[in-house]
TrEMBL record:
This is Protein BUD31 homolog. Keywords: Nucleus. The gene is bud31. One of its GO terms (cellular component) is spliceosomal complex. Coiled coil: none annotated.
Length: 134
């Protein structure tokens, strides 16, 4: 049988520093994917996967753009589209790309992460009285 040639690029400089964190996130992602989903809604079973995806992308984004701790851009290990949104003003706290797609929601609204914190506090302080339902 002939040898299989693999063209593998050497890892970028500083890879040893971030490899344990990325390996840990990969392991958690595998666990979240294989976790049983009986008794959960379809979207509810995807929440841990979205959380880990966000955590991995934010880790690489912070290292490259905020702290400038790594020189090589590792966007191939993260979500390029999500990182592109984080660079734009007003999308810094976006948790996933599904949050800005109104076609995926029942009422054509956005996710809770898109609501400004000032308005969010006002909404939570409103009390519903029994006379409201009368």
């Amino acid at each position: 049988m002939p040898k299989v040639k693999r063209s593998r690029k050497p890892p970028p400089d500083g890879w040893e520093l971030i490899e344990p964190t990325l390996d840990e996130l990969d392991q958690k992602m595998r666990e979240a994917e294989t976790e049983p989903h009986e008794g959960k809604r379809k979207v509810e079973s995807l929440w841990p996967i979205f959380r880990l995806h966000h955590q991995r992308s934010r880790y690489i984004f912070d290292l490259f753009y905020k702290r400038k701790a790594i020189i090589v851009n590792l966007e191939s290990y993260a979500d390029k589209n999500l990182i592109a949104k984080w660079k734009k003003q007003g999308y810094e706290n976006l948790c996933c790309l599904r949050c800005i797609q109104t076609r995926d929601t029942n009422f054509g609204t956005n996710c809770i992460c898109r609501v400004p914190k000032g308005k969010l506090e006002v909404v939570t302080r409103i009390k519903v009285t029994p006379s409201f339902f009368a």
